[in-house]
User: Fold these one by one.
Assistant:
Number 1:
Amino acid sequence: MEPKTKKYLIIGGIVILLAIIGNLSREEEKKSRTPQDESVFMKEERPSTVDSCRNQLYQYSDSIRGIKPEQSRKDGSVQIVMDYIEENAKYPRSIRYKEWSKVTDYGDMWVVRCKFKGKNSFGEVTDNDMWFYIQNGEVVKMSAAL
């Protein structure tokens, strides 16, 4: 092994060791706190900088995310997603919806999971389980659910 490679391995090992020691010391600090310490911390009257930043982030996300898509009370379907699937399907009339999740916020998007069946390019009926990501009333991305 070259001396240069050994040097990098030793430095990498030291960095990892320091990270582990730092993490362990943080855990010990958390364990040493008393309930009184926690109650004093929780009684802080003015909002913290973290809370302020978090509120700004949520407001920003809401402006990008848009209005929450409506779900059918009957079957939980989301019309925006149904339209998207049918516009992009090879055989739109073959689509059969099986299951829908609740629409939830996911960062700067809304997300919903849909399970459906439909014919593929080979004419075979396949099951699909997909996540659909929505911004401002449009499907902007989709991915397979694992």
Number 2:
Amino acid sequence: MKILREAHLFSGVSETDLEALADLAVSRDFPRQASIFWEGKEPQGFYMLVTGLVKLVKTSPDGKEYIIRLVQPGETFGEAVVFADSPYPATAMTLEDCQTLFFPKKVFLQYLAASPALARNMLATLSRLLYHLTRQLEDVSLKEVSARLARYLLERCQETHGRVAAGLTFALPTTKTHLAAYLGTISETLSRTLARFKSLGAIEMEKGKITINDPALLQNMAKGTKS
């Protein structure tokens, strides 16, 4: 119940509704490097991540992998298929051992029709996802790696602490390889960019943790565009 109560999708939903949603959810555990669902497969429902880390990926015809989203605990994924008679648009794979809640499409839609609050939240969640994907496309198309990384660090700090300020520390949720793929670059370029941020005094790094030293500098970097 606690994970449902704290999720954006179910914010403002009554305790009675939360209990009903908890009853229809199916607990599913996956080991590290497992596929939860595959791009192009017929969907049966969507998931909420309870613990662990999940990447949503698309693969190009030449086999190159593009990470379109890194899913954190408390977030849902695969929601778009609830309303569409279409296959999963991406593959979901675990980066750690994961606990999930699975919401069967048919039963969830029946419940959604009887809950205006949940319907509003569903629309808000899908709107946020659309905004995220639009901005990600803009970043990859128009902005340098340094700008993409600066914005990611600012957003990660905001997610962890609820604000951005000098002295705040947070952990990178995944490896440099996966983070680089998410940012549309390679791990070597990511490492060089992090080292540059450190040399400029914008951040400190230690054992996978980032400390923000100069938020204003990062914010200026995040505005950068490709020449």
